[in-house]
Amino acid sequence: MPDPEHPEKTTAAAYPSFSTSRWLTLRNAFFAFTNWDFSLLMGGIYFLFALLISLRDQPDIYALIAAIFGASLIGYTFKQEVSRKFKIWASAAVHAAAHAFVLIYAARYAIAFNNAHFAWSGEWWEIWKWFGLLAMEMVPVGFLVGSTLFGLNMLITCLLLRMNRNDAFSSLRIGAYNNFLRFRLTEDGFDMYVVGLESVPKRRDWIANKKHDKNRPDPEIPVFVPTHDLKPHLVEKISISFARKRADAAVL
To answer: Is residue 59 reached through a cis peptide bond, with omega within 30 degrees of 0 on the bond before it?
Structure first.
């Protein structure tokens, strides 16, 4: 709560609580499955870079891949954090290096495995066989490992470096812990109520309100109602009072 005499000791109300938020952040360890569509994208990126390595397995290609990851992730982090502090570009650089290392190692291993265990006679259709094998190997690596690296990066930087908070929580896709404000006017100010909802109904949990008449709409009767109680609860109440001006009577 606010402490006017010692503002440095002020503790702002948090919803959900700090401990709950920390536990929720740990769910980013399962980022690859929660964000399966992004994971498919990572699988495609890993596959395309693996094709590039199969065409030219040389250090200049490794450097190019590392540079692309570095420029993309560092630039993305700069934009998200709107800052260029050391912890921001350093953590993004480590994140990019991890992707480059995993991708290059996995691609070279897959290429060597395919060359050693599959016969290649030089037929025209074998290029598609090569693409198919490499895709079956690298897409899962990008889906599972590459996407998990994203999740772990958000988990670690959020908990330890106070970064990536918006992405770390939006990626959970939980749709819960919402809140809204209600105001009540008083004679000398107003009261503000912060109301929390831990569980928010999903789209399928809303039904048409039988009491609503579309021909005679009533602003107090909602069009849709949830199938179960919302169970709102008070998070915090703040009262604001304004000092009244008193005019002193002048005596002549």
So the answer is: no
